[in-house]
Specification:
By secondary structure, the protein is of the alpha/beta class. Helices cover 53% and strands 10% of the residues.
């Protein structure tokens, strides 16, 4: 079918500039070819009109020269073949937030969590300054600092506050371009840009098309030198334009492995605020608020029972209250102190009976590794994965300090936090890791 058309193309190529040929002639597709007509497909209506007005006579003349005097040239619009769309990571948008999070906002490709607002955040001595600083940044036009760095372990509310900042800013001005992204996604976008030769669009998106940057989990930039350098330039540009920047992390930059001094200094150039584990009074307030949100009326005895035993983080409290409600509904049971104790027994391991050595024995037995290998410098997955699981279980199910856990495997406290964060993240996305944690938790209970 393309023989006649190929002859015409070859002739026209010598008559036009390379740009004109590539733009207008090369996209044309032969759809049907007969002795008396040739049908060419144009990618769109504009192309059809332009080719008709500027090149159709030239093409018909060439057909005549080839002895095709009676051959009619027909141009028609041909829709391109549908392909799987490649996500345009650099198309300007008003906001970016974490994926797969339900929200009422629709003016961005991702959405802020609608449950994470300032009015739903329980304030106590453990987080009062972080809350005040976050609200001031979001609502005070005279905020005088370069950035806000929210520091805490997982489950203590730093993501809640960063989402709340985004909500408050957009409530005040819906046209604000508030970009919310994790450090991991930032790295992935940069890699995408490099591979697709779109790095200039990547730079423009974060340096010139961004009013507020909310960057989560910055400790995951550890060891990624090129990304750290690019982020450093981006932060300089945003600071120079008086944009608002919010970071969250479970580590201070000085404790992040393989973090450049340049980026470290930029991350802590503003206000640093720490969220601690909730104290007893704050836990009572959290339990009261969460139970109200779940339409549960808990007695004072149950509230204080939970406050005494649920000491780890807010997620543990939320999980226990959900479990209490589910057990009550599924078993048609009255919510009393007895049922509350049953739920606590499922949620809380007796930490007083747990030891680092006991957890280490369970890990080594299950993965068939020598205890000495957990203390080695080996980064092989066969050693690193059990080591990270050991750290996660020790942090969640013992009262041991970061220093104590670190000494048991010859690591510093920042590495301990980083290892635990890795497992915490994988639990959400990797069913195998989630099953390992569940299995190992049961085994630890058995040896108590």
């Amino acid at each position: 079918m393309s023989g006649m058309w190929q002859e015409v193309k070859n002739h026209i190529r010598g008559k036009l500039s390379d740009n004109s040929f590539s733009l207008w002639i090369n996209p044309l597709t032969p759809l049907e070819e007969r002795d008396d007509y040739l049908v060419l497909g144009c990618p769109n209506k504009f192309s059809l009109n332009w080719v008709t007005e500027n090149y159709k006579d030239l093409m018909e003349k060439r057909l005549n020269d080839l002895g095709k005097n009676n051959c009619k040239l027909i141009l028609k619009i041909q829709s391109p073949e549908k392909k799987e769309p490649v996500p345009d990571l650099f198309k300007p948008s008003k906001q970016l937030t974490l994926p797969n999070i339900s929200s009422g906002r629709t003016n961005g490709r991702r959405r802020f969590n609608r449950d994470f607002t300032f009015d739903r955040f329980v304030v106590g001595k453990c987080n009062e300054f972080a809350y005040s600083a976050s609200k001031a940044l979001a609502t005070d036009s005279n905020w005088k600092y370069d950035s806000l760095f929210l520091l805490s372990n997982t489950g203590l509310g730093k993501s809640h506050l960063s989402h709340a900042i985004g909500h408050a800013i957009l409530d005040h001005n819906p046209n604000t371009r508030a970009y919310y992204i994790t450090a991991e996604d930032f790295v992935n976008e940069m890699i995408f840009a490099l591979k697709n030769k779109r790095i200039d669009e990547f730079k423009d998106k974060y340096r010139r098309s961004c009013d507020v940057l909310l960057l989560e989990e910055v400790h995951f930039l550890s060891g990624k030198e090129k990304t750290q350098m690019e982020l450093g330039y981006t932060l300089d540009a945003l600071v120079n334009d008086n944009k608002k920047i919010i970071f969250t992390s479970s580590l201070l930059p000085k404790d992040m492995p393989n973090m450049t001094k340049g980026l470290s200094s930029r991350l802590v150039s503003g206000v640093i605020s720490t969220l601690e584990k909730p104290d007893y009074d704050t836990r009572v307030k959290i339990i009261e608020k969460k139970s109200f949100e779940h339409n549960l009326r808990l007695s004072e005895d149950i509230i204080h029972l939970f406050a005494k035993n649920l000491t780890r983080d807010v997620r543990q409290i939320e999980s226990t209250i959900r479990c209490l409600r589910a057990k009550s509904e599924l078993m048609n049971a009255c919510i009393d102190i007895s049922l509350a104790k049953e739920v606590i027994n499922c949620q809380v391991i007796d930490q007083n009976n747990l030891s680092l050595d006991g957890i280490k024995k369970v890990i080594c037995h299950y993965f068939k590794v020598d205890p000495a290998m957990l203390q080695s410098k080996s980064r092989k997955k066969v050693h690193a994965y059990p080591r990270n699981l050991f750290v996660y279980l020790c942090r969640n199910f013992t009262d041991a300090t970061l220093e104590d856990i670190g000494k048991s495997i010859n690591r510093n406290h920042s590495t301990i936090i980083y290892s635990s964060e890795i497992i915490e993240k994988k639990i959400k996305t990797d069913n195998t890791v989630k099953k390992h944690i569940t299995f190992l938790t049961e085994k630890i209970k058995d040896v108590m």
